[in-house]
């Protein structure tokens, strides 16, 4: 292998591929990038068995070839180089890297043991705008379960329906739901939240092609492909949770509500339950919390349609959802102290649902 | 106690006092601020027994008093408040905090068990510019020893001499030395590096009054006083290390030298020794390092006066000193492969000395 490559372009590609390198891999060869050169294209491949990333860029390739090089060290070196151009050549399993007055010689490995790229039969194939996919991930993936004993809920459910794709994440305490307007055939896939979070860091605003099979998903841009394994199992019947009926609608300023909840949770977090109580009256929300060290009471002006409600929440679950919203005012849909609260913003394609905490004293 | 206070000014004062709150205090009362109000002045005191900070600000005090309040929670609340003015009142050991539509009630403690401010006889009393003291701390405190079995070397030695104050830190591998031009009587103090690092975060550019006794130091600005215990014991005879003689002077561009060393240490750190070799010739430095995974060679142009030298260092110690320097070019004073390297910048009041690593193969 013998090539010349632009340093800053190469550093960007290396940073993308590095997202699939696990810091605690038990498979030695997967601590490395597979680096291939042919036809003036350099390809980097990295995998942690769950996620595989392939990214490509142009280079002046005088002699093709392939090699596996330690990803962390190689990445650090490329990032620390200062010139415009890097000369890279490989002789046997020895790599020579030159940039201005720096010369590195690195011992590498042959690609013989590096896993092949996943291959699979594609059942669904559609295209999304980068910013649309990023928003759907950002507004749902935080709500997945961290409980590894029920793995399906550590993923985001992509439900391909007539009215678009539903992105759904839930953990038994709250649910985040986003519809993306795209036409596909019916189907579904549960994508590990970790894979989506890495995808989020890689994506720009370019179009993303999504391909799904029974066990794998593939997200492709012009230069980069992320492959991820899927989670298998049945997802929760989330649609039953989304009721259109409610007794009380509260409209409240987003930032004031969030700031008051954040202050109230300073005390709520002193106890383990993170408990905040909310009393809705016709023109204000009273948020309160008690712990051994003290009490807090916050008043937030609001516009209420419907009957007064008293309800309690784990403040963490309420805040997680409110923090990622963007509109200036929020609408809360409430029924009573034991049914879920649904939070909506201006964009009606999104909703966040939180289950209340039942209080012994309530009656 | 009953007072009105500006929120953002109070938040700043709280952040300063919080620097003396230890996250792992075993003395329950020291998890709190002592808060005093009298004569339209609010005083906050915090202590971890080694460091004590007292800071003051104006307020409208309707009724004086004192109380101890949990520092972490109080700090979080003050920071999260959004209005201009905070109303604070204390009834017994219950504090009421109001800011706009937020009301907190906090259970507090009486000040009976809170330690008194240190009192001591002052042996030395002088004033330094804030930026001068900050520079002296920043350029020396990083070089102290982390070895708690020889506590004197975990501090910065302030040696009060005829030609000014010498700030000295050393750990057996390197020494940082800075002279500050101020007239005082002879004396000395060893100040814990941790205390100086907290002082660094508190100080602005205002003048600082320094008062020393046998066991304590006191650093005062208009609003804030930091008291610290001193380390007792004999410091090293550091002046014997600062030789004026050398065989070779190398002048090198600061940023190029640093970048090359940083790249070389990517390989050096793969082995535990962090070893980099430097070969000085008439017009270039060759920096090299080897590890099992590879080799690196860096060439840096330089201007050399004197004979060629081959020498090896732990790259961490070399880089620590070079990183904090400011001038565009550096001068290295070398004698041979076994004597220390002294690094100087334009400002001749500072020097950094690093001991070489002796190589078995050198002859």
Summarize the structure.
Two copies of one chain form a homodimer. By secondary structure, chain A is of the alpha+beta class.
Spell out the blueprint of helices and strands:
2 copies of one chain form a homodimer.
Chain A: E1 2-6, H1 7-18, E2 32-38, E3 41-47, E4 51-58, E5 60-63, E6 65-70, H2 71-80, E7 85-91, E8 94-99, E9 102-107, E10 124-128, H3 130-138, E11 155-161, E12 164-170, E13 174-180, E14 187-192, H4 193-202, E15 208-212, E16 216-220, E17 224-229, E18 248-253, H5 254-268, E19 275-280, E20 284-291, E21 294-306, E22 309-314, H6 315-323, E23 329-334, E24 341-344, E25 350-354
Antiparallel strand pairs in A: 1-5, 1-7, 2-3, 2-6, 3-4, 4-17, 7-8, 8-9, 10-15, 11-12, 11-14, 12-13, 13-25, 15-16, 16-17, 18-21, 18-23, 19-20, 19-22, 20-21, 23-24, 24-25
Question: How does this structure look, described?
Answer:
- The structure is a homodimer of 363-residue chains.
- With 363 residues, chain A is of the alpha+beta class.
- Chain A has three domains: 2-113, DNA Polymerase III, Chain A, domain 2; 124-239, DNA Polymerase III, Chain A, domain 2, CATH 3.10.150.10; 248-354, DNA Polymerase III, Chain A, domain 2.
- Chain A has six helices and 25 strands.
- Chain A has helices spanning 7-18, 71-80, 130-138, 193-202, 254-268, 315-323; strands at 2-6, 32-38, 41-47, 51-58, 60-63, 65-70, 85-91, 94-99, 102-107, 124-128, 155-161, 164-170, 174-180, 187-192, 208-212, 216-220, 224-229, 248-253, 275-280, 284-291, 294-306, 309-314, 329-334, 341-344, 350-354.
- A twelve-stranded antiparallel beta sheet of chain A has the order 14-11-12-13-25-24-23-18-21-20-19-22. In chain A, strands 6-2-3-4-17-16-15-10 form an eight-stranded antiparallel beta sheet. Chain A has a five-stranded antiparallel beta sheet with strand order 5-1-7-8-9.
- The radius of gyration of chain A is 25 Å and the shape is elongated.
- Chain A starts with a strand and ends in a 9-residue tail after the last strand.
- At the A-B interface, α2, β9, α5 and β21 of A face α2, β9, α5 and β21 of B.
